[in-house]
Amino acid sequence: MIADMPSREFSINLLDEYIESENLRDHCKMVAKAMEAYAGSLDKTDLEVDKWWTAGLLHDLDWEKFPDEHPNRAVNHILPPLGYPADVLHAIKAHAPERTGKSPESEIERYLFACDELAGFMNAVALMRPTGFSGMKVSSVRKKMKDKRFAANVPREDIEKGAELIEKELTDHIAFMIGIFENS
Questions:
Q1: pLDDT tens digits for 130-174?
Q2: I want to staple 163 with a disulfide (CB 3.0 to 4.6 A). Which of 2, 88, 149, 173 is the partner?
Q3: Which domains does the chain have, with CATH numbers?
Q4: Structure pTM?
Q5: Residue 159 in contact with residue 117, Cβ under 8 Å?
Q6: Computed from CA positions of residues 149, 151, 155, 159, in that sequence, does the dihedral angle turn out positive or negative?
Q7: How far apart are CA 50 and CA 6, in angstroms?
Q8: Per-residue H/E/C for 37-98
Q9: Helix (H/G/I), strand (E/B), else coil: 5
């Protein structure tokens, strides 16, 4: 436990307790990995890196058991009594502004919003490739984004808005994410 925040092991066990779907667990771990990598690239402290990782890992904690209440159930009832810090809760809340009314404002909030949908979309692209993320090109991700039937449930406008929120060209954001997932 760092600064009275639950440990990574505790958070992983919590994820496993609430989410049965291996695909959803994998998505949460991908977003955690992306958040950790971005925090590291921004020279965050060890505590901040842990917070970013935790926000990524637990952002969909209540999706499976409480889909109509997501993410409000997690940020209002599940996580606060367990000692998760306010900035982690705010980031989780801001990753779904249409459900919570909380827009992504702080840095951790903006990056979680930016990593969430893109990670899901890129995973769908990887699943269609015999080599997964290995050798994936930005151009192939961008090409799949133009096909509205491919991963149709992933809002392209949220992917584009996410890149804007972190002040990165979408191409650079995709390339950064490929680098993370290709090496994991």
A1: 999 999 999 999 999 999 999 999 999 999 999 999 999 999 999
A2: 173
A3: 8-182 (1.10.3210)
A4: 0.96
A5: yes
A6: negative
A7: 10
A8: HHHHHCCCCHHHHHHHHHHHHHCCCCCCCCCCCCCHHHHHHHCHHHCCCHHHHHHHHHCCHH
A9: strand
